[in-house]
Amino acid sequence: MISREENQNDRPDAATENRSEGWPQRLERARQERNHRELARLLLDGADAAMAEAEDDEALERAQWLLARTQRSLDACSAHLECLALLCDLMERQCWLSRCWSRLGHPGQCHVARERVRDLAFDVAARATRTEDLGLRVSVTLRAAEVLEAMGDLADAHVLRARAFYKLGASSLRETSSRLTEAASSPCCAARSYQ
Any idea what the Cα angle at residue 161 is, between residues 180 and 151, rounded to 5°? Predict the structure, then answer.
């Protein structure tokens, strides 16, 4: 189950303190402290910078390497809600990387990046089912569906959307059913519940 545990390294004052350092120093500090969430955030920032200046293969290879490192950091992450959000960010960056490879005329690299996006989308949706927060579960699943649709994978996007809406409907049905059970046992309570 995904928890809301808090890491001492994720304190707001620690984040402010670390911002005065440069990116390489913050990356090294996060690595030494085994702060996988902060490490993933920093690696995503580095990948963003590499893709923003994606004029050549070297920049995209660097972005690809940074995204692979992000994946390893998130795999080492505990079952934490923020890790789920970071996995969604990683999935979206992989989608951006596939577009960059396509724009530079590298269909093989584009294909590899697209396959990683698909794997991440289904991984994220599977991990979302482990959280008790229905809103988060649905929003993460819909985010995965949106990325798949952006890549043109309409069938899988539709399956994930249907799954998300089914979860919402099932939850609503359970809530209504429990209210009806209460109402059947107390007619006065029913009148108040549905006003």
Answer: 170
pLDDT tens per residue, range 142-193: 999 999 999 899 999 999 999 888 877 665 545 554 554 555 555 444 444 4
Question: How many Cα atoms within 13 Å fall on the side-chain side of residue 65?
Answer: 9
- As a 3-state breakdown, the chain gives helix, strand, coil percent values, each rounded to 5, of 80, 0, 15
Q: Sort residue 34 into left (φ over 0), alpha (ψ -120 to 50) or beta.
A: left
User: What does the pLDDT look like over 86-124, one tens digit per residue?
Assistant: 999 999 999 999 999 999 999 999 999 999 999 999 999
How many Cα atoms sit within 13 Å of 11 on the Cβ side?
Answer: 5
Give the angle subtended at the CA of 111 by the CAs of 108 and 116, to the nearest 5°: 130
In Å, what is the CA distance from 20 to each residue of 13, 24, 25, 104? Answer: 12, 12, 10, 36
> Which residue's entry shows tokens 């994606």?
54
Q: What is the 3-state secondary structure (H, E, C) of 66-124?
A: HHHHHHHHHHHCCCEHHHHHHHHHHHHHHHHHHHHHHHCCCHHHHHHHHHHHHHHHHHH
The one-letter amino acid at 184: A
- In the 8-state DSSP scheme, what is residue 3? B
Q: Which of 50, 143, 145 is nearest to 101 (CA)?
A: 50
Structure-token pair, residue 39: 């490490």
Output the pTM of the full model: 0.72
